[in-house]
Design brief:
Blueprint lengths: L8 H37 L3 H6 L3 E4 L8 E6 L2 E7 L2 H7 L2 H4 L27 E5 L10 E4 L10 E3 L6 E2 L19 E5 L2 E4 L17
Antiparallel strand pairs: 1-9, 2-3, 3-4, 5-6, 6-7, 8-9
Amino acid sequence: MSQQVFATPDLDQSAMNRRRFLFATTAAVGTAGLAAATWPLIAQMNPDAAVRAAEDVVEVDLAALPAGTPRTVHWHGLPIFVVARTPAILAAMQADAFVRRLLDPRSDRRQQPGYARNWHRSLDPSYSVLVGVCTRCGCVPTYVGDAPPEPDAPGGYFCPCCAARYDPAGRTFTGITQFNLAVPPHEIVAPSRLRVGHNTNNERFTLKMVEVI
């Protein structure tokens, strides 16, 4: 004769409570991990209304910008890298051997306004204007200038968080990310005056149009 074993109601209820707790804890940890991974980039690309109102337009005096030395300004809560590129940097950016290493050399992905869809990704080859947010992990890249992070690379930017590398035009060449650094709306309103936040020729372009990851 078979013997039936019945668990007591108290034990059943205790086990169910433990299972519910474990399920809830696991879900909470997973949600927190996802939020932690995506929050830096989301927070940087979506500033609050107060920041947007306060920093709708930022102007930079290009005449006071030493060649090869970056200047960081903040627009909509984002770091914007402005650099006066030297003739040596411009020449290195166009070297055939290096261009072949670029993942998006023609800026086919919508990471910039139409007037910056060129090899130097700006209005004027002498100046770069880039959003200083890594398109792979959301960290702020480090400017390496004329000191390339590897041989046969024309300097540029290096992300200390994920090791993504970008040339002085913000074009990626490592394979870690498929996206170039974003270019913000900008215009040159005088021979030595850059305005970040306004498009050239009334083009309709915002950072909401870019692909970030």
